[in-house]
Amino acid sequence: EVQLVESGGGLVQPGRSLRLSCAASGFTFDDYAMHWVRQAPGKGLEWVSGISWDSSTRVYADSVKGRFTISRDNGMNSLYLQMNRLTAEDTALYFCARVTIFGTIFEKWGQGTLVTVSS
Amino acid sequence: DIQMTQSPSSLSASVGDRVTITCQASQDISNYLNWYQQKPGLAPKLLIYDGSRLETGVPSRFSGSGSGTDFTLTISSLQPEDIATYFCQQYDHLLATFGPGTKVDIK
What we know:
The complex is a heterodimer. By secondary structure, chain A is mainly β. Chain A is built from no helices and 11 strands. Chain B is mostly beta strands. The chains are: A mainly beta, B mainly beta.
């Protein structure tokens, strides 16, 4: 069974950093690109970042470009999101998501980890 | 950047009604359009991918159509368990954009 388990969320002050992790199991991790998608409280879904299976391609939403860094460790079956210079607008539930091998179709999702940016 | 719009933003319908949600892209996206259902407190669930392909295990009352810039999600006969918010999503290689969502409830 495919499982994606996010961790690392919490309360952080504006301007500080946080690193999210996603532990993957139940599939061959390095066969798939992986992504982060977030959802602010009571709001819609916002795609944040994606990384190819071999880390050769990393893409970001304009809202996080230059502040967030996506990475992965295929040996550890893990996905990461380093978030720097956090603002209140980054407050959201962050989902780790696996896409299909055919395209950026989010077929598997974790349960999310909540990041709250507040002083 | 490709922008996505959805309409309506919310709707109320009766059990058994046919429900239609539309999604429009700001430029031609071919058929690179997916639909998701999200219930409160849960992660989104993939319903339709590449415009019209039904994800395995999704009831056949859900269908998708369209290409280019205009897309439609149809629920042929609304069921109580379909109460949720529905999002469209386009993709271009690894880049993605979601629509703002359509909240569906029972009248």
